[in-house]
Structure prediction request, 636 residues.
Amino acid sequence: MGSNSLHVLKGINFSVEEGELVAIMGSSGSGKSTLLNILGMLDVLDEGSYTLDGVPIKNLNETKAAQYRNKFLGFVFQSFNLINYKSAMENVALPLYYQKVGRKERQEKALKYLEQVGLREWADHLPSELSGGQKQRVAIARAMAAEPKVLLADEPTGALDSTTSYEVMDLIQKINDAGNTILIVTHEPDIADMCKRIVHLKDGVIVEDKKITQVRASQYV
Amino acid sequence: MFDIERWQEIFDAMLKNKLRTFLTGLSVASGIFILVILLGFGQGMQNGIAKEFEGDASNRVGVWTQVTTEEYMGLNPGRTIQLKNSNYEFINSKFADQLEYRSSNFMVWNLSVDYGKESANYSVHGVSPEFQNIENQFISQGRYLNYGDGEAVSKVVIISNKIKRELLKGVEDPIGSFVKISGINFQVVGVYGDKGGDREEDRLFIPLSTAQRVFNGSDNLNMLFYTLKPSDNFDEALAQSVKFTEEIKGYLKEAHTVAPTDPSAINTFNTLEGVKRFQNLTGGIKFFFWFVGICTIVAGVVGVSNIMLIIVKERTREIGVRKALGAKPWNIIGMVLHEAIFVTTVAGFAGLIFSMGLLEFVGPHIKVDYILNPSINFTVAISTVFLLILAGAVAGFFPAWRAASIKPIEALRDE
Prediction:
């Protein structure tokens, strides 16, 4: 898209194992969001290859991409992106609607995931009636509801204060503990330290890729 | 395809965006409402005008004469042409197969008519019994003239309801009583009314033969009236009556030695030509109302398109979220279209029912000249609703399609 092309990622070679919790760091313009969008099939790559769960992701039409997104990926955004006229439960149930899950089952599942993020009693509230941290937890529940292979979080704590950020990170760590693969884009070092692996991007190339000892968020909560 | 899940999703979205739904619906409903009311009144106007014209038999031809204006065969212009009984009889026999009703007319203007001490001036017409059918008169009391009256040269008279009111004040049953016309006693045998109203009721009718004899008419006639047998369709009837008119004109010009080019010595009128003009007029009115109505619908369609564009714009981010969560392009298009079609359908029918109800209940009570019982053809109304629904769908499709084809990442970036 666009008439002027701009090389954002200039040769990135990395793979993520199942069950990893990876932080992608870098200053703005380093290409970290672009990388995440490509991984999330929200954006397409011009060159190179991307394999997800053994499936090569290339030349996807919109319908196919939508299917893969629905099946493989869960998204968490900095600005939550909840649908404002739907209640917390309906928001969580939305990916299941596109999986053609029946209404009853959708609601049950949605309540189950809301329970996991500790917002069961907020199920009937609209996003406008929730705090920032609660909204992000609803968004995480929504990302989890489709039971994706990978959870992609773009600055999930970017709009939250540090206490709330740690609560959200605690939740993400617990989900990771349950065996889910998670990639987080962040520019906050303390958030990155709560992951198991940090990838530093600069000007579109990986400058550092290291495994770290995880800092548990629960100690701050 | 009936997809209950999508219906629920749409109802959710609509109920939670009541204002948006309401405004879309309102523009559709008002468009239909205005169109139906306009077309209804167009029809009402047509009915009203038709009623104004319905008084006289519609394929009537009349003939009268004036003075010549052109020199012809050595005769000077300025001669007065006088119709004669023989002219009338000749036409009767020559065109016998085409004529439905026929009557000649010998009239005297402004005769003093007395009843008891009351006196008033009316015109007195000598006519044949068939004149009743030509003028669309109805009998309120007694009988009309008959052929026996003419043969016997009886002094009998038909008066109008108006004359009965004005002259024979307080007389319940005037049949058998006598009125004096120019001092001569005539026996009243009938009371007529005219659908054309009071202005047509200032006339008394007596047998032609009596009129010619009593008022020194000799065998002179003032006018000839004919109605032609009905044809299958209007154009045929019109052609026939025009041809008939030209033929009797030609005959009379020849019989009275009038130049074939003389424009005013022999005059005719032909009500079908009037009907044609009337039809053109109502056609014009109808066209005007349709034009305004279609403009209204176009405005409605533009309104719906606008609202759909705004809805899609407003929902771009939501569409991005839905796509990120796994919505396929057709899910998005389906969602937007489904909502658009549903709202326009419900609102369109609401507008239709409301406006037709209004016409149904208020229409018959409207008492205005030239507007009678406004109503609308149901098929036309239904088709406009479907047209609007189709327009709403088309109007919704393009923005929906655009929205569905934006990359989710761009839709999400939309602020």
